[in-house]
Amino acid sequence: GAVVSQHPSWVICKSGTSVKIECRSLDFQATTMFWYRQFPKQSLMLMATSNEGSKATYEQGVEKDKFLINHASLTLSTLTVTSAHPEDSSFYICSARTGGRSPLHFGNGTRLTVT
Amino acid sequence: AQTVTQSQPEMSVQEAETVTLSCTYDTSESDYYLFWYKQPPSRQMILVIRQEAYKQQNATENRFSVNFQKAAKSFSLKISDSQLGDAAMYFCAYRHNFNKFYFGSGTKLNVKP
Question: B103 vs A43: CB contact, 8 Å cut-off?
């Protein structure tokens, strides 16, 4: 149980275009999902907290207009990287909890390369 | 603000031996949760073990155990009988009640055959 599916696992896009990444909780309802970014050989940096039916809460330094997060249902959150630039190339990971005191369950991550 | 510190960027252990990974954290809360996650080369984050701060007993999961020292704000992970499959990045994480997780910088564990 507690499976989180993330799609796509790998995407290459051209500079200036937008890319959407999906995060789905397959066997549970997730009122809250989290989006992380991970640079090579570094830790996970929280970008934003996605709440179903409301606006996402962004961490300091994360551009809201560049990283659009939508959490339209209890099983789906999306992260859209708008007007992507090479510096946006990174590994993006979503996660979700089954309940208030449960651990995080992670998706497989998405490797974004902007050329 | 909560911070999680892993002071060992990289460690090595011989197969079948025991290794301990260190983690310290800073918090003013009394009720919180601590976790160790493993990230193999596939980059999938896998929960290894968790500890509730209100529990004095150290958590154990098969070959994995923790040494939780609440007063010292220390949360180390011991891996016994190390196996080749244990080679990965290990992240210590902190969570206060229903809030977000904070991750340490990670420790890369190498297992030598």
Answer: yes
Task: Please tell me which residue of chain A has the smallest CA distance to B44.
Answer: A108
Number of inter-chain CB pairs under 8 A, A vs B: 46
Q: Can you tell me the distance from the alpha carbon of A98 to that of A22, in angstroms, rounded to the nearest whole number?
A: 18
Q: For the segment A24-76, what is each residue's pLDDT rounded down to a tens digit?
A: 999 888 888 999 999 887 889 999 998 888 889 999 999 999 999 998 888 99
Q: What string of pLDDT tens digits covers the 113 residues of chain B?
A: 568 999 999 999 999 999 999 999 999 888 899 999 999 988 899 999 999 999 989 999 999 999 999 999 999 999 999 999 999 999 999 987 666 788 999 999 999 99
Tell how far CA B82 is from the center of its chain. Answer: 15
d(CA B40, CA B60): 21
**Angstrom distance (rounded) from CA A12 to CA A80:** 14
Residues 6+ apart with CB under 8 A from B13: B19, B79, B82, B109, B110, B111, B112
Which of A34, A60, A104 has the most B C-beta neighbours within 10 Å, making it the best mutation to test the interface with B? A104
Nearest to A91 by CA among A42, A57, A56: A42
Residue B67, Ramachandran bin (φ over 0: left; ψ between -120 and 50: alpha; else beta):
beta
Residues B105, A108: C-beta atoms closer than 8 Å:
no
Q: Which residues of B touch A (CB under 8 A)?
A: 33, 35, 37, 42-47, 50, 91, 93, 97-98, 100-106
